[in-house]
C-alpha cells in the first residue's frame, strides 16, 4: 500500500456535518430524476438475478445442454451477478455525480465510464466480499464493522482511481468517526427496501399471476439495487464534504 501525503484539515467553514437525511433525500431525488437511464441499465444488468427471482415462483428449470443442472447454473449466475453488479455500481456512481452537477448523462456515456473501470471494481468487490464473509464467519459483529468500514471503497475506485489496497485504506479513513451514522443509514435502507417489497408482495397477492409476479419482483429488485449504488455515491460525497470540504464541482472534475 502506497503511503499517502497527509492532507491538511480544511477550515471548518468549508466542511459540513454528515447528514443521513440529506443522503436519503438526495439519493431518492437523483435516482428518480434519472430513472429512465438508471432504471433501464439496472433492469438489463440484473438479468442474472432473474434466476433466483423466478425459480422460487416455480419457473421452468434452466438447462445446460440436455442436462438440468441448477447448481451449476446458480454458480455461473453468481459470478455474473458480481460482474454485472460491479459494472452497474460503477456506471451509477459516475451518473450520480454528473447528475448532482446538473449534467444530463447519456446511457452510452454511463456504459463507457463503467466499462473503463469494471475489472478493478470487480476485483475490489470480490476482495471486500471475502473480507466481510470472513468476518461474518468468525463473528457477525466484525463482519458488519468491516462492511461499514469499506462501504465507500468502490466509489473511491471510481472517482479517485486508486489501487485496491489504497481504496480500502481510503474508505477506512473516510468512514472513521461516521460509522454509527452509516450503520443507521443502512438500517433505514433495509427498512425502506422491506417496505417496498411488502407493497410489491401485497400487489402480487392480489394479482395471483406467476409471470406478472416475477416481473414485479424483478422490477422492484432492480430499483432497490440501483438505489443502493446511488446511496454509496452519496455517502462518499457526504463524507468527503464533511472531512475535506470538497464540493461536487471538485469531484466531477475527475470525469472531465
UniProtKB/TrEMBL annotation:
Pfam families named in the record: DUF7847 (PF25231)
Coiled coil stretches, renumbered: none
Regions that span the bilayer: 38-59, 71-94, 115-134, 140-159, 180-210, 216-237
Organism: Paremcibacter congregatus
Phylogenetic placement of the source organism: Bacteria, Pseudomonadati, Pseudomonadota, Alphaproteobacteria, Emcibacterales
InterPro entries, A to Z: DUF7847
Protein name: DUF7847 domain-containing protein
Record keywords, A-Z: Membrane, Transmembrane, Transmembrane helix
Domain DUF7847: 107-233
Amino acid at each position: 500500500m502506497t503511503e499517502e501525503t497527509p492532507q491538511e484539515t480544511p477550515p471548518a467553514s468549508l466542511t459540513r456535518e454528515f447528514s443521513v437525511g440529506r443522503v436519503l433525500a438526495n439519493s431518492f431525488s437523483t435516482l428518480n430524476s434519472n430513472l429512465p437511464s438508471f432504471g433501464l441499465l439496472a433492469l438489463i444488468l440484473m438479468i442474472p438475478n432473474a434466476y433466483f427471482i423466478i425459480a422460487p415462483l416455480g419457473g421452468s428449470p434452466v438447462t445446460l445442454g440436455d442436462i438440468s443442472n441448477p447448481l451449476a447454473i446458480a454458480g455461473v449466475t453468481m459470478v455474473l451477478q458480481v460482474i454485472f453488479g460491479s459494472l452497474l455500481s460503477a456506471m451509477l456512481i459516475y451518473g450520480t455525480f454528473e447528475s448532482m452537477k446538473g449534467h444530463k448523462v447519456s446511457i452510452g456515456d454511463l456504459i463507457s465510464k463503467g466499462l473503463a473501470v469494471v475489472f478493478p471494481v470487480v476485483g475490489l468487490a470480490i476482495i471486500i466480499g471475502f473480507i466481510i464473509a470472513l468476518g461474518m464467519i468468525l463473528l457477525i459483529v466484525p463482519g458488519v464493522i468491516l462492511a461499514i468500514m469499506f462501504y465507500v471503497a468502490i466509489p473511491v475506485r471510481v472517482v479517485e482511481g486508486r489501487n485496491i489496497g489504497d481504496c480500502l485504506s481510503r474508505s477506512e479513513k473516510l468512514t472513521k468517526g461516521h460509522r454509527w451514522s452509516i450503520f443507521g443509514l443502512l438500517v433505514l435502507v433495509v427498512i425502506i427496501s422491506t417496505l417496498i417489497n411488502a407493497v410489491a408482495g401485497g400487489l402480487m397477492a392480489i394479482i395471483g399471476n406467476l409471470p406478472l409476479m416475477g416481473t414485479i419482483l424483478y422490477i422492484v429488485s432492480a430499483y432497490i439495487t440501483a438505489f443502493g449504488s446511488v446511496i454509496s455515491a452519496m455517502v462518499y460525497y457526504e463524507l468527503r464534504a464533511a472531512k475535506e470540504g470538497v464540493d461536487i464541482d471538485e469531484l466531477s472534475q475527475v470525469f472531465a
